């Protein structure tokens, strides 16, 4: 590399807080450039702001539009080895066109046509699936077929071999969440192809996966199971349990008892690793929130970024100075230190009488592990 | 205290490894006594054996006999403030007549007549109840009524107020496990009386306790529940879950998969704190084991002591050089470093076709926390 | 075992809270005895007191007396294989003549004559040595000779082979602390003899042990040292460091800064495992306290028991309703939940001008690990 | 935002693994763009490589050049509020001219002229200073003046107020390490100005900082100090300790004992938090390595990135296919999964006879906390 192709470009400008532009300063900056150096004093405002100035922007994606484009992709884009998945990622408008919904998180709609297979592979990126509608696809994780149904949350920690198959006559869509941007920034990724075809034994769809039979009993640890690999060994958190837990919290509150609700009319559960109660994946937190119709949540903000998907109901969401009416399937992003509040209310075309159910995932475990978590 | 009432008594004897008995030695020993001193060299064999010489002995109590005596006590011994509980403790024959089943553990049969109340109190001793037969009693823990039914495991960490009520027309018996001997040795105990009567709202018997509605959903943490008190916040581990988990393990094994079983034909679950997967109580481990008919478990030994109760089925138990045929309800103790093996087999009067289900509790968390755990 | 030799003896008495004595009750108690059962209602006052009623009593041992008796033992009791150590243990007057200073702790004066060897062995009991006077003995732990000098604290976690040698022409005394009573109650002990003689290479007395060269640099971890055995890998905490740390705390306080002192005029350091900052041994906490002349410490009490030895200075100690004037070497015990306060003051024959330095050890890690710790 | 200014740009190309370019595909891609979507199949090779393809490149900066440019900056660029520090950062040639030495780490030379002050501020970014030459500057952290001398490592966890002052008649240079890029990517940063001038009491240079007097005694914890803020409370790790620890390791190895060395001729210590033995800062690991002259280290690679500075001696460094001769002060970067080996040898102008001492820092705690650590 010579002076002329150094990637460093410094512009001496007369500005408050900057040194006076002189020929000596200009010469100094040329010296910096040729040695691949950048002074702090030209960059400090960007690098060390008074509080987070998130690069990601608040944004809303309509499920209806995602669904249509994914369906169209289902018709004309094949799925198979190389492309690996028919997954279409949300690209935050503040992140330069990269398929990153936040600086750390990936969110995509994945779409599988009847009879299709998404081939087996594994990667260090931690992942999960969440099903807002439909059913019939199963994911085979480490040889264990896991059925996917509306409301189910299906984590899959890094380096587990996995494949998908649509065993029905209908296409199916769901969302994928991964820590692709985080691992991309960290240069931490490994990837391997798996087998090209699943065995016959894996092409069945049991009601419960083996992981659920082993780990899905409340408070009961299988003594002989000794895995200590990162991430939850439980591969499916079924909607019937999630729904019941939320209903119980709200009922307990109504009966006048300590209930685990976050605030009146706002129940929530976190998906956790049954081995130790920690977050379900080392880099991602996932939760389901229920906001009773008519309730408006207290505005809160925290470091780290989140993605929300409306699972059921409708309402109005405010993120900093953005306000959106949202309904089933809509996805929105809450950047670091942005203020979020949610109001649960009927929409014009909302015939259901129920609450606003919000699925959310975030990078909170990263912030907590690195002692960077702040809340207000 | 004068020389004459010192509790120390030293006897100089001519024995291998002991100093030669001389007038000087005798005088020295008198000096030791008057200063409340004891030399190591007279005690080392007892205090520092090559391996544990447990003071507790292997022993079996027959449920039939316990049940009869408890029933008789139900007739003639009232329950109420002062005595607090109609609990009758197993006194290990090696522990000098004290009501200690092992040096750290208390095990008792508790008996409550129709309509009776055991008054509210609390203590630092950690406790649980396990129900081998009957139903109809509920325990109110911190104001939360918890129904008790056959097969249920009901932990109750120290310092929670609790009372019992028998709401039926039948007497009911169950076993209590506590760490009374441990806390007695450690001089760690606190105790307080609670209210003399429960409120009307506490005199109902809901199907599920509030604790189960809050904490009993697999892998789901109620985000707003922030208790960090010691011991599980889940107050009931229901038989239906335990039974299903054991069945699942054995089925998975039969299907050829990693199953969590301890060995072929031997499934087991541990009752854990859903907040962090640790033992359900800080000083006691509790587990349910299922041994398939015809299976004999591998002999094992470990430091620390355990108590077992036959929940169902029948078989033959070997603890060191003791062998007992056991059937429903029978209790036996496995002292520290004693070797245990179990064979599941039909008994003469055993009409059921099933497995041998063994409930067990131990002081393993103490040994693990203090790094004193050894296994062979 | 027949009815006649059951260890259980129950006496039906007419007393408040006890069932009325009737022939039926007496018969019931005979039944209990023959089945090795003890009811809670006759025992609850003893087992479940309102607060700890420690079995150990506050007591003081004078170093002068211990020293004289140990010296006398040095003359007439040989040290060698079998007896293993010329250690003379403090027997708390409340503990029935057993060589237990508290229910969990052992404290002994050990004495080694010029040229004597205490043979190599190992045991699961955790141990330490503390030197109140003299020098010249070294302890070989796992082949590493560790010099012992006044003020040094020398931990030695369970299952490390160790021996002592007095390389000087003077006898030497020090105190040993172990968790013998705890492991005795728990039936957790293992013991093995080591070699009968040390190698020549082990018969030198380096200024610093190998453990200090590896682990004795503040905040610096040797990357290639990977031991995870229980207890500190650092085998000597030298007085020069302890003294300086205490001096620094008091100076910082005098200069007006946050200083780590516990209260004005009362500095203290805890001996910790440099790998993780935890207590130096899994079952024992050890600390050095310095109380400036004229200072009286705030009375405090906590669950768990402690032993103190005056390392330097003199003063007045109050434990519950016992008050003692103490001077160098004196040892006293603080039972569970007993209130302790210390006043540092000159004694009649105290020529030094300095503070009262108190070495102390306790079973606090046991209480903390088991969540039984309370403080007032 | 309209279709025309979407940041997403997708180009349909005929390539292996990509869908055939058709008008329908092009239309689909236009739809993706307008909805801010990006398919996985066009990005997977970049986002999910078989192993890390680090964006950072191996690179070497010569201390001589850094020193000269910093000195020149000392003459013409003032230091004060706004620019805050005369720090000049190493810009990795693979990171687009940003002042990031790796994707997570910042490394800069900081330069302070005689009598200059760098004003007080604080920020969430974790930081340290390491001194390769000179002395005379002290850093005031939370009011505690910390002298800086050759070989000292001075950590400073996030959110501590700090300022620098050069109290001598000579300029002084040192290196700063921070996690600026990591916190920039995560949008986690907070920043506050402190006071504009230090108090007189802070303008002294004690031999030892208060932090060292409180926390710098090996294995001794000040009991009354209760801070649990992230990062080490010890603000200076002095060269005399580091040097001695390394010397001891090599001596122990030479004497034939377990020594903590990583491999023959290669000693190393990690700077740790004395409270718990964890890494000195939550996001950065720092170590000092000593490679004996003539030794070549085993090639190793790991996920995560490191920066090295030659503290003393000289040698030859190989990072993947780059090889550099290095001498005192030179800095080089080892990207994620790049292979590093070092040979210690005399250079032409190297008059010292000693070993190659390498200071290094990395983002290893991030990788370990997130379970992304791999090593080969």
UniProtKB/TrEMBL annotation, chains A, B, C, D:
<keyword id="KW-0560">Oxidoreductase</keyword>
<dbReference type="GO" id="GO:0016702">
    <property type="term" value="F:oxidoreductase activity, acting on single donors with incorporation of molecular oxygen, incorporation of two atoms of oxygen"/>
</dbReference>
<feature type="region of interest" description="Disordered">
    <location>
        <begin position="200"/>
        <end position="227"/>
    </location>
</feature>
<feature type="compositionally biased region" description="Basic and acidic residues">
    <location>
        <begin position="200"/>
        <end position="215"/>
    </location>
</feature>
<keyword id="KW-0223">Dioxygenase</keyword>
<dbReference type="InterPro" id="IPR047183">
    <property type="entry name" value="GDO-like"/>
</dbReference>
<feature type="domain" description="Cupin type-2">
    <location>
        <begin position="110"/>
        <end position="176"/>
    </location>
</feature>
<dbReference type="InterPro" id="IPR011051">
    <property type="entry name" value="RmlC_Cupin_sf"/>
</dbReference>
<dbReference type="InterPro" id="IPR013096">
    <property type="entry name" value="Cupin_2"/>
</dbReference>
<dbReference type="Pfam" id="PF07883">
    <property type="entry name" value="Cupin_2"/>
</dbReference>
<dbReference type="InterPro" id="IPR014710">
    <property type="entry name" value="RmlC-like_jellyroll"/>
</dbReference>
<protein>
    <submittedName>
        <fullName>Cupin domain-containing protein</fullName>
    </submittedName>
</protein>
